Recover the amino acids of this structure.
């Protein structure tokens, strides 16, 4: 399935830059194994904290911390969806399945959704991600940040796929069969996990369900900054990944949790570059990125102001009733 190439074609004209990009696109297993290993180790360590915090008031902070590692496995699913996290195909498939199981996203569904997003980035009609981010009002912003829209979509889409109704504009016939298969496999695993919880006790709640719910707003804080407020177009020939996608500066914690996805404009412009090379890519092409944020918190402050201004404008046009 083809990914966005508009900016690649524009910038590949420079042969020196082209050689540099080819070097950055090289795939290997080592960086992905280190990243995935550390991410899963973090989840294991915070899971131990949850176990030790049982029957104390530390349980809720421990579950919140544990949830960060769990919800940010979405970043692992994103990288392995592109099959760039590892050189070995089987490693990409193994990690995308583990991550997908944790975050309730069947791998085949997410690939179809995400590649449509790359092909039609910020296209109001065809980018499926645009329809999930109605955040220009306080109600929409808070609802999105809560994660409720995510959970609803994930559960409803999986239930529909389980009965053979995997339907969306971005889902083709071949994708549909894979999504139905993956959803049924995942549902079977969830049922087995739920049945074991009846025997083993509420561990599933403490180590997965509640932490995922508590931490979801932190992941939403990252995701919402990628394109919100950026350039939109309905003409794919004029789409510019350096304008319709935002790059956000990150501290070392966020770089780790998001698998370097703060360099999001660079990723959209050159999706074949693995996550571990995005920082080097930013050095090469970062000056071309028109939409950047100094940090995630600065983006949100700016967006809150925009939402407030939108509300004032709507109030200004409401008839007085006289």
């Amino acid at each position: 399935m083809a990914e966005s190439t508009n900016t690649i074609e524009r910038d590949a004209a420079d042969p020196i830059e082209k050689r540099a990009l080819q070097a950055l696109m090289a795939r290997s297993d080592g960086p992905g194994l280190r990243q995935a290993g550390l991410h899963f180790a973090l989840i294991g360590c915070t899971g131990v904290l949850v176990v030790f915090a049982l029957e104390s008031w530390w349980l809720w902070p421990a579950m919140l911390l544990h949830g960060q590692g769990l919800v940010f496995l979405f970043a692992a699913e994103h990288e392995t969806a592109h099959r760039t996290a590892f050189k070995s195909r089987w490693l990409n498939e193994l990690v995308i399945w583990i991550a997908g199981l944790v975050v309730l996203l069947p791998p085949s569904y997410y690939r179809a959704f995400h590649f449509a997003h790359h092909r039609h980035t910020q296209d109001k009609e065809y980018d499926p991600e645009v329809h999930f981010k109605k955040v220009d009002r306080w109600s929409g912003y808070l609802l999105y940040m809560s994660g409720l829209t995510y959970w609803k979509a994930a559960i409803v889409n999986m239930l529909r796929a389980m009965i053979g109704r995997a339907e969306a504009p971005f889902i083709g016939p071949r994708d549909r069969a894979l999504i139905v298969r993956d959803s049924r496999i995942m549902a079977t695993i969830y049922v087995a996990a739920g049945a074991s919880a009846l025997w083993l006790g509420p561990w599933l709640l403490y180590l997965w369900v509640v932490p995922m719910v508590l931490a979801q707003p932190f992941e939403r804080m990252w995701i919402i900054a990628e394109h919100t407020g950026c350039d939109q177009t309905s003409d794919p020939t004029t789409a510019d990944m350096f304008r319709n996608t935002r790059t956000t500066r990150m501290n070392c914690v966020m770089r780790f949790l998001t698998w370097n996805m703060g360099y999001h404009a660079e990723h959209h412009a050159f999706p074949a570059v693995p996550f571990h090379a995005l920082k080097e890519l930013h050095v090469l092409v970062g000056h071309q990125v028109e939409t950047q944020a100094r940090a995630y918190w600065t983006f949100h402050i700016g967006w809150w102001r925009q939402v407030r201004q939108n509300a004032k404008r709507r109030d200004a046009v409401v008839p007085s009733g006289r």
Observations:
- Residues 173-200 form the longest helix (28 residues).
- The radius of gyration is 20 Å.
- Residues 6-312 form one domain.
- The beta strands are 247-248, 292-293.
